[in-house]
Amino acid sequence: MALSFRRNGDGTFSITIPQAERQLLEQLIPQVRELIQERDQLAWRLSPNPYPQHEKAADQYAEMIGSDLEDKHLAALATVEETLDAKRLDEDQITAWMSAVNDVRLVIGTRLKVDEETEIDDYADDTEQSLFLTYSYLGLMLERIVMAVAGE
Length: 152
Prior knowledge:
The structure is a single chain. The protein is mostly helical. It has one domain (4-149). The chain is built from five helices and three strands; from the N terminus they run E-E-H-H-H-E-H-H. The protein has helices at 19-37, 55-65, 68-83, 91-112, 126-149, and strands at 4-7, 13-16, 88-89. It has a three-stranded antiparallel β-sheet with strand order 1-2-3. Helix 1 (19-37) packs antiparallel against helix 3 (68-83), helix 3 (68-83) crosses helix 4 (91-112) and helix 4 (91-112) runs antiparallel to helix 5. The two termini are 20 Å apart.
């Protein structure tokens, strides 16, 4: 069974995810949720400070958006958990998948300090190499979701 996301004629999306990858998402999503809720540094890219040099502006921005951004991230993660075994997704669900997969990938990338030139050989530790492979796989998954949404 190969990973696939495909737009259907009725506006839904067919999804096929191998069981091992589903189990991986089952493990990662609660971990990312916890990082978001605890406002852990590993999740900073999900709610970046748009005014790092201006404390007052940053405080005003944080007050203005409140928990809206955090709530959106958590809702997307919850949608993926609820639909992990689904064979079809609607438009809102596929959008949530796109968001959640990207969020998990960003958190892993932050943990690994990934940049455009990072390769697996940059990590000597088996755990970090495994995380990098997960990061790469999530990139592939995200690409397939985006292509399906675009109708490609």
